[in-house]
Write the C-alpha cells for this entry.
Amino acid sequence: MNVEQFLYHEARLLDTQQYEAWLELFTEDATYWVPLEKDQPDSLDTSSIIHDDRTLLDLRVKQARHPRAHARLPLARTVHQVSNVSFEEKTNGEVEAHSTLVLVEFRNEKQRTWGALVEHRLRRNGDSWKIAHKRVDLVNSEGELDGIAILF
Amino acid sequence: MSAFGPERLAALVQPDRVHRTVYTDPALFDLEMERLFGRAWLVLGHESQVKSPGDYFTTRMGREPVVVVRESPQKVVVLINRCAHRGTMVCAEGRGNAERFVCPYHGWSYDRAGALKAAPFADGYSKEVLAGLRLKAVPRVAVYRGFIFASLSSAGESLESFLGPAKASFDDFVDRAPGGVLEVAGGVFKHTYNGNWKLMLENHLDGAHPAWVHASSVAVARAAPEPGAPGQEHYYDIAVRQMRQNGAPETVWEATGMWTTPRGHGYMGDYHDDSRLVVGMGNPVFEEYRSALAKEHGPDKADQILRVTLWNTIVYPNCSFMSQFRQLRIIHPLAVDRSVVHTYSFRMPLAPERMFRDTIAFSNVVNGTASWVLTDDLEVYERIQRGFASGAVEWAQIGRGYGRDVQEPGGAARGGTGTSEIFIRAQMRAWLDYLNER
C-alpha cells in the first residue's frame, strides 16, 4: 500500500467508526498529538488538546464504546477529507508524510468543520505501514472550543 | 427600575430549591452582569502575567473587555478596553508589552495608566472635553499573594473581607511553591459550552456527580495498566490515577470536608491526606522538591504544606482552582446559555523543572478540551441547560444536607457530609445578596 492509500485507509477506518482497527495501525511506542499552540515545540511542558501514548490512546477508543460515555453517545459521525499529501524517507527508515485534513463532524444537531495540518511518521509493516507518530495541528487549536469527543 | 425586586428574587431562590429561570432568563443574566459581575471582586489573573512595566494582557470582567497592565513596578491597573473617542477596542486581544496603547481607528494614544496623551486633530475639540477623556480605569484593583483581582464597583468590601476563610486556599496554593514563587505557563485551554455560567461552579465541588458523569472514564482507567512505582512512573500514570479517583467509593465522598463562606466561596478537602494522591511521593524529582521546601520551612512545616488538605476551591463568582497540581480556571459568562472557561497552569520556577510535567499531564486530563473527563462534564452542562428550557417543571433541588450545615469559627460553614449541596446554597445566597444590594 503506498503512503497516500494508507492515509486514506486510516481516514476510512475513522469515518466508519472502526476505532479498534484504527488503533491497530499504531506502533506500540506510538504517540498521538494534537498540540494546543501554533508551532508548539514540546508536548511535556506545554498542554495539548490530546497527547497520548499508546496506553492513553487505547483508553480513548475504549471510552467511545462505553455505555455511559455521555459525550460519545451517540458517537459523532465524521468525514475526514485528506489531501495535499507529500512525503519523504528519513534516514532512520521512517517515512514522514504531510497532509491537510478537512473534517466535518455531526452530532446532536451540531455540525462543526475542522481544518488541520497533519504529520505522520510511518514505519514499514510488510506491504503496509504502522504509525509511529501522528501530529494534528488544528487551525483553531488556540480558539475557544466546545468539547471534542472525536479522533482526528 | 429593575423588574426584579427583593421579593421576586427571594421567590426564585429559596433555601433548598432554585427556580429554573435563574439559569435561563436573559433579563436575569443582564441583572447578574450589572449587580454581581459589576460589583464582586473578580479573579483576573496572576502577577507573573505582567512582570515588567508595560506588560499587559486582555481579559473580560463580565461583559467588559479589559486590559490588565503593569503600570509601574509597584502597581497593576485594569483599563476598560474601549477608546474614549469612537468606542473602538484599543488593545488587540492577547498579551504583550506597550509604552502606549494606540487606537487603530484614529490614533488616539493612552499611557499605561490610561491617560490620553495624544489625539490627532486635537485642535478640533475643546480643551475641556479632551481633558475629561481617558481609558476608563476599573475602580478597584487588589492583589492577594500574587493573584490579581478587580472590582467594577468603586464601593464595597475589601478583598480580604471578600475572600474571608477562602484565603487559606490561596495560601495553600502559594505555600507549595518554593520561595512562594509561581508563574503562569504551559498554555491556556479555552473551553465553551451552551449553558449558564453557574453550572460549572455548581459542579466543581459536587462529590455526588463523578460516579455518574465520569462513569466511562472511571471504567476505562480501572482497566488500564497499573501506575508505576516511585521512580518508575509512566507517562500515562497521572491521567489514569486522576480518572480512577473519580470512582472513589461513596464513603470517601461523604467523608470529604466541604466548607463555604458568606460570599459564596467554597472548598473541599481532608480526604487526600493519604499518600496515594500526593503523586510523586518517593520519586527522586518530587523528593528534591520536598527537600527544597524543607530547607525553606523546616521538614515538619514542609510536610504539612504538602499534605493535601484542600482540593478544589471556588472563588465566587468567576474562578475555580486546585493547588496540588496548580490549575486555575476563570469562567466568563457570554450569554445566559453560553459560557467560556479559560484554564491556566502554574509553574514553580524554584522547584525542579520536571515538576511542571506532572502539572501539564494533569492539565491535559482534567482541563483538556478533548479530555476523557471534561467532555462528559460539558455534555451534562448542556443537557441541564436544555432541561431547564422546559417550563413544565419549575424547580431545581439544592437541598441535599439542608438543615445539617455546621457553623465554624471564622465565618465558614461546613456541610454535614462531603456530598452536602451546601456549596450551591452558599453560592445562591451570595447571588441573592449581590442582586439585592442597593
User: Anything to note?
Assistant: The two ends of chain A are 21 Å apart (CA to CA). Chain A has one domain: 3-138.
